[in-house]
Amino acid sequence: MSRLIVIGCWLSSLLICVPQCLADTQSITITAILSRDAEPYQEVLEGVRQAFSVSGFRIELDVHVYKDASNNAPIKAAVSASRSRAVLSLGSQATAFAVSEFSELPICAGLIVDEKALGDSENVTGLVLKFPLEIELQWLKMFIGSDKSIAVLYHEEKSGAELGRAQQLAEQIGLRLHAQAVNDHSDLPSVLKRLPQNTGALWSFAESGILNAQTAKHVLLYSFRNRIPLVGLSNQWTKAGALYSLDRDYFDIGVQCGEKIVKILNGIPPEQIPVEPPRKVFYSINMKTLRHMKLELPESLIQDAHEVF
């Protein structure tokens, strides 16, 4: 009888240990490398953790901030020591570092402007910040209408090809684009001065780099004085005086990145996982600018804005 009791206790302890042992074997480390430790990056990480929590895997995120080449070695050592199964890179600098250093590991990149940051590496997939041109043009039409031409500020080398595609798509939905090349910041004042007064709006490709901290004051003042609305690049541009800006749901971007990593863990090669844009579109509106420009928008468009300034 005592032997049966001992055997029963042994079996009970074994049954208790087995799930824990299985859980331990399922523990997976994913290394996250961030270009900056800023709020959008933390929002993305929260979204990634959310995707992991429902994945069926036990996943731990090992987070590092890539500062410069001086901390390359500690990050590489951490990836090796943790036996990381994949790398999540957030931001252009972190992605450039990951792509150059971890060719043997699958990489999911996020918070990058476009696919150029990924190069030709077959071990990389990711999520770009840039919305498809179709989306941007549809929102332009909703805010500005199709009865006025849109001045497109572009850089011939950086966004010349993008301009051609934008013009084709705009024609299909009844928008008129008026291209204005700005190949150097010093060209901007003269380009703006030549714009006709009946210009419906100012719009620029993000990758052109024309709208930045150096040019913001000049462009916003021109927009205000000439009552030509500016389409911003983010809610900070809207807050400063742009009529509206499209923005991203960074938490959901994290969920998308997490879902891609889960696909990799399930055996799908990164090259078979498409690089995608954000699936959610947020937008902000500046009501002071709207009134100053003497524009009218449907009430539903204003009510559905993520932020109103």
Automatic annotation (TrEMBL):
Residues 1-23 form the signal peptide. InterPro entries: ABC_transpt-TYRBP-like. Keywords: Signal. The keyword Signal applies. This is ABC transporter substrate-binding protein.
